[in-house]
Specification:
Length: 341
């Protein structure tokens, strides 16, 4: 079977594995305080164009989201996000298990707007019974979103402005960040994210690492005692250098962006090929996730050779599937997929 169900079905990029092998028998201190983690931090600061950011390595995406959000919020505060947001749908209520309600807003193609954030904030503070309600304090967005869509720089600027006006934190989930930064037509850079968010993270698990995510914190209010939160939430790795080494490898010679370009290029090849065959798309995505409307009988035939993610039922005869490419997707598998469609 050829798997197109997600972007973490493979292990890790050979350069990442080689870095781990080359340093395997070295001794170092633990918990991310080793020279390799420090070197990776410096490289990421350079890539982000800021020396005033704190950089932390955590073991996975769910731990990263709940750790940042719990560190930012008081017990009575919650996080605004799109209904389709990862923290609202795919993390088994982990943020809410920490005592913070996820305040879902109706998204447009997986995104929320500055106007929606302002309305949610103003509505809360205009209510005379607000002390009986969860207070919105953080805005959570993903780039790319769960639907493969991207924010524009202007949309991020608008969100930043509203968050400043309303006293809200802006946190960006970058689990698939390379696929967003490398996408055709995007005007958002890593430096933009470092300037416009209070905190964001650079995804490793879905972009060439064995595991691990890298949190970048700009806002001084979120920096204080953050390592305490990492430890308490299970995100701190005793053999922390394993995380730093992976990000050090991925940020050498533009490897991180190269992996993003590879996945996006093959996703665009799939999109173009299926369009030429007359297939319709559930949403327009320029990243590595493509959402295709497929006749159920055809899907049964395809699933004899391929594995997809079933996204939603379109109608009685059609299903929306997600075709996901990755840093490791093979060109010949994409060609075989297009042949079978």
């Amino acid at each position: 079977m050829i798997m197109f169900q997600n972007d973490y079905v493979e292990g890790a990029h050979p350069a990442v594995l080689q870095k781990l092998i080359d340093t395997n028998m070295e001794q170092s201190v633990g918990y991310g305080e080793d020279p390799y983690c420090e070197a990776a931090r410096e490289r990421i600061r350079q890539a982000a164009g800021r020396q005033d950011v704190d950089v932390h390595f955590l073991v996975g995406g769910t731990q990263t989201n709940l750790t940042v959000i719990d560190a930012a919020l008081r017990p009575y505060q919650g996080a605004l996000c799109a209904q389709t947001g990862h923290i609202n749908v795919h993390e088994t209520g982990s943020v809410e298990a920490c005592g913070h309600k996820v305040l879902a807003l109706p998204g447009q193609d997986g995104k929320i707007t500055a106007e929606q954030v302002k309305e949610a904030h103003d509505s809360h503070w205009a209510d005379g019974a607000r002390e009986h309600m969860v207070q919105p304090k953080l805005v959570y967005i993903s780039h790319p979103t769960e639907l493969g869509t991207l924010y524009t720089k202007q949309e991020l600027l608008d969100l930043r402005k509203v968050c400043d006006e309303c006293g809200l934190y802006l946190f960006l989930d970058g689990a698939r960040l390379a696929y967003g930064l490398a996408a055709e037509g995007t005007d958002v850079t890593l430096a933009d994210l470092a300037a416009l968010t209070d905190a964001f993270y650079i995804g490793g698990t879905k972009v060439g690492a064995l595991f691990g995510e890298c949190v970048v914190i700009r806002n001084p209010a979120l920096k204080e005692d953050f390592r305490y939160f990492i430890k308490q939430k299970g995100g701190m790795l005793a053999k922390g250098r394993l995380l730093g080494l992976q990000f050090l490898a991925m940020f050498e010679k533009d490897l991180y962006m190269e992996m993003g370009h590879h996945a996006d290029r093959l996703a665009m090849k799939i999109r173009q090929g299926l369009r030429e065959k007359g297939y319709r798309f559930y949403i327009d995505s320029v990243t590595n996730q493509q959402f295709v409307i497929v006749e159920n009988e055809k899907l049964k035939e395809l699933e004899k050779e391929f594995v997809f993610n079933h996204e939603t039922r379109y109608d009685e005869k059609h299903t929306v599937i997600r075709i996901c490419t990755s840093w490791a997707t093979k060109e010949e598998n994409v060609e075989k997929l297009l042949e079978r469609f």
